[in-house]
Amino acid sequence: MADEENFLKRVHSEELKERFRNIYIGVYKSTPYFKNLPCTIEDIDEGFARVRFDITENLCNYRGIASGGILAAFCDTLMGMASRSLGYQVTTLEINMNYIRRVAGGKYITGIGQVVHHGGKTIVAECECFDSEGHIVVKGRSSFYVLGKFEK
Question: Which GO molecular-function terms appear in the entry (predicted)?
């Protein structure tokens, strides 16, 4: 996961910078799972995240192809990031994945996550991930339960 300084360079307004600083420190920087993801945040805004995910060899199956479970975990993280950018703590209720094209180890994908619905208790987000040639690799959709607002 990108360090805090690089993370905040991608944020567009001062209000969002403060929100993302709290989210980054409170969630992403302090959680072992997130610290070990080979991700780089390329762009982030309210309800939107674009993240690069390096497909390292240890994330592949025996054929050298990215594991579907790893891609689902990345998409969950990506859509969660887009959802948390609204200032809410969320947890995944359900996730649906469509695997379209394989991606080999040593490559990377770029994922775009967007919130498509924000209700009182739930948020729905979608994502699309593309390989380095621009081919779609995976599409996902997820529902998140809103646990509450992030503390300032």
Answer: fatty acyl-CoA hydrolase activity
